[in-house]
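Why does residue order matter? Because the sequence determines the fold. Keep that principle in mind as you read this record.
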Amino acid sequence: MTQNIRDIFEQNTLLIEQLDKAVICFRRQLNDKALSMVANSFDQIKHAVEAIIEDREYFNLVSTDSVLEMLTAILEAQKNRDYILLTDLLELQLISFLCGVQELIISKEEIVFDEDKYQDNIAVLIKKGIGFSELILEPINTAQLLKSGYRVEFTSSGRMTLAAENEGAKFYFHTNSKVKEEAYLLADYWSREEKLSYTLYGIGMGYHISELHELAPKAKIKIYEADLNVIMLACAFTDIKKLFEDDSVTLVYDPEFTKLKEELLNMPSEDMIYIHYPSYQNIRKKEGRKLLETYIPWSKTIEFC
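Structure:
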């Protein structure tokens, strides 16, 4: 992947995430907040479109006229304060266009494993996490992980998602589409303005944690995770160290669920644990599932659906 294509890909990833949040705000009639997001994105939109048009040979499916027509319609809707139409244009045209560009790049390029980034992420977890040892500084064995049923894939928005297999069932930890939008919706559902601390089970690739931290920057967030493979894959294919550089966010590696059990025993009755359901699906120990199943009672019901 050339540096130019990499820049387009990474900038589009961030742009899609910003526009997704703007769409959510428009749908909730938080128009001032949404307009601010769109305004802050205009330079990025302009740069992205110019870069894509300039590299016509690579992006041979992109029509310059159709792109300019789309941008004109967006500006016209904003000028007319037609926020319903503006939202539709952002969601159905601009974001779809950017996702199409991402998918085109993904189809032409390979997933690149950055060993240096992986080691940097691991080093932060060893320093600031709980339950880690320097053993995880050893190189990641991706071939063995694939044999065990784990795999990483690009989403259409440019981020990575994770899939695993447990008890013969295959499942994803995050959507294959707009992964940060999904994470934001979950974090927004969990977040409470008055809460000063959150206890969670399940790190996945860390997207829902990142969004919760953004929504509640002053709150303490403690995440428990029993699967070291998931943690290592998150370190290999995301910039997860940025999340844990903040002292208010802590990851606890707890393969035997002893620390989590103690946490739950001492948890005030008015408090609760927030569970990332795909991470719950991934629990390999019966004791761990039994410990958490009372906090998601509907999980037993859907097993028979």
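The chain has two domains: 3-108, 115-302.
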